[in-house]
Amino acid sequence: MKIYLNGRFIEIDDNITTDALRDRFKPDADIVILNGFPVETSLSLKDGDTVNLIKRSEIPSDQELECLLVSRHSPGVYEILKKSSVVVAGVGGLGSNIVVSLSRMGVGRIRFIDFDVVEPSNINRQYYFIDQIGMKKVFALHNTLLRINPYINYEPIDAKIDEKNSHQLLKGFDVVIEAFDKAEEKSKLTSFMLSNLKDIPFIAASGVAGYGDTEKIKINRIKENFFLVGDLKSGADVGMGLMATRVAVAANIQANLAVRIMLGDI
Amino acid sequence: MKVRLNGKDIEINENITVAELLGILKLSDKNVVVEINMNIIPKEDYANIIIQENDKLEIIHFVGGG
């Protein structure tokens, strides 16, 4: 039978166990992951299984690394996501967290667009570091992403999205995600998407400020291809801040929704 | 007259524009997307378009933060 071991198909005896496989191919491995789950006991393998043998603290070869990065993924997810593409408009509190999660998921092509620079007031919720203050956000984030998952086609774009460049910047992706801060910008992009690219799944956010109950953050399916994530009420305002815990929840609801769309779960 | 707003029937006066309706609803024209009978209305038309009886309106209102 054939199994997929550390990123390579190998021919192996029927019904070999995980322990026997480890003893034969990587006796010093201390983690055995079978189809996305670390197994503690020895189990019989079936044709088509995916097995990853990992030695803690060892940096594997480039060839193995890509598949080990996603060895905890559910089977079949990575293969689809690798061929998928997402564009994220804005990489502030929502967008920077969305892009980092999609990078960890292994989405094959990720474009992200912003014109801003990293400021001290961003660090309380955005995926930037103090030593990145003053850098253009898209380039700071790109550096971080390459440290997380280098096997992705990243397209950082230092630009402000407007009526003139929207079509050029947003067309041709499987999913478009709105991750702006200002309500006016959210409304403009939504208006553009619903008028010009209404066949492309579009995920926007509204109502992510404060520290209110995160269960109030819902996925509102406004149209077939238009999803609005948030509680729809909690806007950033005097006395109503924007903070990591709630913004990152909304960001990852947006990101997970994009994943579900690409996997055909919606 | 009767119109349908975000899936609910409401009564509004005749001859009011989209801009006037937004005023009544206390919504800023900058922060909304307005659709009438499945067509997105450009913001520059809010002051000109008169809402007709039985129109199906969708008003999507955004709050800031991200």
Description:
The complex is a heterodimer of chains A (266) and B (66). Chain A is of the alpha/beta class and 266 residues long. Chain A contains eight helices and twelve strands. In chain A, helix 4 packs parallel to helix 5 and helix 4 packs across helix 8. The longest helix of chain A has 19 residues. Chain B is mainly beta. Chain B is built from one helix and five strands; from the N terminus they run ββαβββ. Chain B has a five-stranded mixed sheet with strand order 2-1-5-3-4, with no helix packed on it. In chain B, 23% of the residues are buried. The model of chain B has no long low-confidence stretch (mean pLDDT 96). Chains A and B meet through helix 4 and helix 7 of A and strand 3 and strand 5 of B.
Quick structural summary:
Chain A is of the alpha/beta class and 266 residues long. Chain A has helices at residues 18-25, 62-69, 77-82, 93-105, 137-148, 166-170, 183-196, 244-262; strands at 2-5, 8-11, 31-34, 37-38, 50-54, 85-89, 109-114, 153-158, 175-178, 202-205, 218-223, 226-230.
Task: Characterize the main sheet of chain B.
Answer: 5 strands, mixed
- Quote the distance from N terminus to C terminus of chain A: 34 Å
In angstroms, what is the radius of gyration of chain B?
Answer: 11 Å
Q: What does the largest sheet of chain A look like? A: 7 strands, mixed
What general form of chain A does the structure show?
elongated
Total count of helical runs of at least 4 residues of chain A = 8
Mean pLDDT of chain B: 96
Characteristics:
heterodimer; A: 266 residues; alpha/beta; 7-stranded mixed β-sheet; 5-stranded mixed β-sheet; 8 helices; 12 strands; B: 66 residues; mainly beta; 1 helix; 11% helix; 32% strand
Ordered list of secondary-structure elements with their pairings:
The complex is a heterodimer of chains A (266) and B (66).
Chain A: E1 2-5, E2 8-11, H1 18-25, E3 31-34, E4 37-38, E5 50-54, H2 62-69, H3 77-82, E6 85-89, H4 93-105, E7 109-114, H5 137-148, E8 153-158, H6 166-170, E9 175-178, H7 183-196, E10 202-205, E11 218-223, E12 226-230, H8 244-262
Parallel strand pairs in A: 1-5, 6-7, 6-9, 7-8, 9-10, 10-12
Antiparallel strand pairs in A: 1-2, 3-4, 3-5, 11-12
Chain B: E1 2-5, E2 8-11, H1 18-24, E3 32-36, E4 39-40, E5 56-61
Parallel strand pairs in B: 1-5
Antiparallel strand pairs in B: 1-2, 3-4, 3-5
